[in-house]
Amino acid sequence: xxxxxxxxxxxxxxxxxxxxxxxxxHLILIPKLFGWPDQGLEMDVAVHLGTLLSxxxxxxxxxxxxxxxxxxxxxxxxxxxxxxxxxxxSFIIIVATLPAVIVGFSLKKMGMDMMxxxxxxxxxSIVFGILMYIADRRPQLWGLDKINWGSGFIIGLAQxxxxxxxxxxxxxxxxxxxxxxxxxxxxxxxxxLLSIPAILGAGLLTTIDxxxxxxxxxxxxxxxxxxxxxxxxxAAIHFMLSFLTRHGLGIFTLYRxxxxxxxxxxx
Length: 267
Prior knowledge:
11 helices, membrane, undecaprenyl-diphosphatase activity, transmembrane helix, Undecaprenyl-diphosphatase
């Protein structure tokens, strides 16, 4: 794989993992557009782990609090006095992750080649882009402290749908949250926190597949892709949270709709 391909694919993964435009869709499209061969499992592992590190580093204080409160509650013998808002949020994230795990394993058993078509990516880009715009018109009523078991699980169900290329994991999670009245920053923060087990799971499964097939994972390509996707992912998270303090999601809907129309027309 050329250095240009590594740079472009790392940039695409790092950026689109946290912007509501679909990382999986773009990672399928870019090699097709440039005539590049499939990036391979080594590349998939590297960019997944790179973006995982970026979100962990960015939310390290939040993650530290969630883990500490979770294990304090467990160690206390489930003492309700130790069941803090942070404990509750940690359990909600676990519960919200389950739908994606179940659907992900099911799709892996069935095979996903049928879900990699340009027409599907174009359609999901347009449809879920429009739904995101409609949801973002809702008033911004609730903060992170208002996320409960029901709303968390609904966002988790939305995340499971994002396994369809072109949907966007962060985009559909924010869409679900905004549709329920959560403010834009809360919607993005919860989507990013929820991405941690999702990216970890995807990276782990890809690593297992790579090892089973005898691929040498930790090489120069891995190091470059890992480092670049980490840096681009960190920048994307910071940009998105800063952007949403002043703007809505309309510009991303416009991009998705235009991209979808171009794909349906040209491809």
